[in-house]
Amino acid sequence: MTKHIQFFDTTLRDGEQTPGVNFNTQEKIQLAKQLESWGIDVIEAGFPISSQGDFEAVQAIARELTTTRVCGLARCNRADIDRCHEALVDAKHKQIHVFIATSPIHREYKLNKSKQEILDSIQEHVTYAKSLFDHVQFSAEDATRTEPDFLAEACELAIQCGATIINIPDTVGYTNPSEYGQLFNYLQENVPSFDQAIFSCHCHDDLGLAVANSLAAIENGALRVEGTVNGIGERAGNAALEEVAVGLYIRRDHYQASTSINLGETKRTSDMVARLSGMAVPRNKAVIGANAYAHESGIHQDGVLKNPETYEIITPQLVGVKENALPLGKLSGRHAFISHLEELGYDTSDKEALSIAFNNFKDLADKKKTITETDLHAIMTGQNMEATSHYDLIKMQVQSIDENTHVATVAIVDHTGSQPQIKQDTAIGQGSVEAIFTTIEQLLGQEEVTLLEYRLDAVTDGIDAQAQVHVLVEMPNRQEVYAAGIDYDVLKASAKAYLQALERGSQHVKD
Ligand code: KIV
Ligand code: ZN
Predict the structure, then answer these.
(1) By mean pLDDT, which of 234-248, 377-391, 475-489 is the weakest?
(2) In angstroms, what is the span from residue 216 Cα to ligand 1's centroid?
């Protein structure tokens, strides 16, 4: 019989714990709406007590979503639970996620609590959470390194106190598929009220097994899977939900499981997370990497031409990879542009934002022969990224003096003060990117920044593709920050990415 697997996305909470990744509230709302369109059942929008910013983002998302359940994280203490309740009060569908560590190493070194004290805390706090929420998720942090009999006791107690979802996290990515599957089997047999709750899996990727472990849990009784888009997350990251979703679909003969995921929105969701997190997707990444549908060897190409199924188990169309040129060009009017945006699911009610988008589209259409759906998505995400920035790039010139000397002049509008201020500066560098980055550092008064990574990609194929630059920088306080910039011009895309990185780095210090 087919079972239904719920998808719980924690890109905005566990995903944001990735070093260097910081989403602002507007970006979180944009991502949450896209996750809703993708068909995610529950979004973990943040950890409301951790900061005012997290609280406001959870609250804003709670007010925005209509079909997806919004969840906030809380430790086993009343202040966390109250703050979560306050943040979620306006949500149409809400859930709380209460956790406490159960493993011997966490009990002894982190919490300094006995087994009985852990059980008492579960009893008190799950009961309290249940007095405020209908849907209560309890997580036994570091479950996979917990004594199985104690884990079963903790889960049973949480259910008795009102938990409706029990999560079994592999917090440190330690388990493997057969062991994790057996653990779910053990819990089915040893938690008397197993059937009264939904059991959920939550895997980290330290040993590269997060997706395999999640699928093993699903084979052994888990009815909910947790993870992030593109697998972003602390250390090696979380289970990549796009891989789990496509795995369940392609091998439905084996898993006999359905989901509510709208697979056609997968690529778009992944692209948005890559741009807003600043973390580029590796080309060979399963399901959504640029090479996932490329066939290089002659034998493979020949086979695919004769019958794509010879070497292609996933079609690019399944996950929404399409490069259809749109019937849009430099002569297209506003009306055609709006109707394409609406077809792609964008809200066009903000007239000011729409005018900017239309001008950006016209600029691009002047330079680029064919405009694709991906170009339109890039315009819209790039525009949102710029709309939330305090610095607008208004002019940039680079001159080559000799092979090793470039001079850059950059002008920006600085919106950080009470009045917008135009600022301009000039610097030299060995290459053009170095000259631009040094000028931006001078303009923002951030001269001790180290560039750790720089990656340039094309948004679409072809010589006239838009450029997408991803950078990773280290700020003077050693904090790492990812950022991305999109523009038709490679150097402008570089400047936008660097401006964004320095702005984020000076704003955020992770809790
Ligand atoms: O990995 C983990 O244990 C977590 C908990 C908060 C559930 O993210
Ligand atoms: Zn986690």
Answers:
(1) 377-391
(2) 19
pLDDT tens digit string along 468-493? 999 999 999 999 999 999 998 999 99
> Which ligand 1 atom is nearest residue 142's CA?
3
Q: In the predicted model, what is the mean pLDDT of residues 306-317?
A: 84
- Find the residues whose C-beta lies inside 6 A of ligand 1: 14, 99, 139, 141, 167, 169, 171, 202, 204
Mean pLDDT lowest for which of 68-82, 163-177, 276-290, 421-435?
Answer: 276-290
**Residue 323 pLDDT > 80:** no
Q: Please tell me the residue having the least CA distance from ligand 1 atom 2.
A: 171
pLDDT band at 508 (very low <50, low <70, confident <90, very high): low
Cβ atoms < 10 Å from Cβ of 178? 12
- Asked whether 71 and 94 are in contact (CB, 8 A), the reply is yes
User: Relative to the CA of 101, which ligand 1 atom is closest?
Assistant: 3
| Nearest residue (CA) to ligand 1, atom 1 | 171
Ligand 1 pocket test target in 14, 142, 224 with most atoms within 8 Å of CB? 14
Helix/strand/coil (H/E/C) assignment for every residue in 299-349: HHHHHHHHCHHHCCCCCHHHHCCCCCECCCCCCCCHHHHHHHHHHCCCCCC
